[in-house]
Amino acid sequence: MGFDLDQIKPCAMCGKGIGHAGPVFYRARIEQLVIDDRAVARETGLQMMLGGNVAIARALSPETDFAKPFRTAEVLLCGTCGIEPMPLAVLLDTQEETDL
Ligand SMILES: [Zn+2]
Q1: For the whole model, what pTM was predicted?
Q2: Does pLDDT of 64 surpass 80?
Q3: Is residue 98 part of a domain?
Q4: N- or C-end of the chain: fewer Cβ atoms within 10 A?
Q5: Ligand 1 midpoint to CA 100 (Å)
Q6: Does some domain include residue 15?
């Protein structure tokens, strides 16, 4: 996964250019997912039917997806902001969503 010039955008936290703090910057893909409680319930039911044997239930289960993507964004952070603590939910709220 390279990085082309058309992918440049301002730092998601400070809004400055991603290179203003030096040559190192960060790219992160943030995904917010929602647990599929129906899939979890089906899996749990199968496990109970099999006497609690999780390994056999996993082998027999058709379930492969226990959470659904809700929001996704790709962010760039400058070298300074990349080492700062920031809740992912807050960062995600400031971004336009990208295609899943
Ligand atoms: Zn920054």
Answers
A1: 0.75
A2: yes
A3: no
A4: N
A5: 25
A6: yes
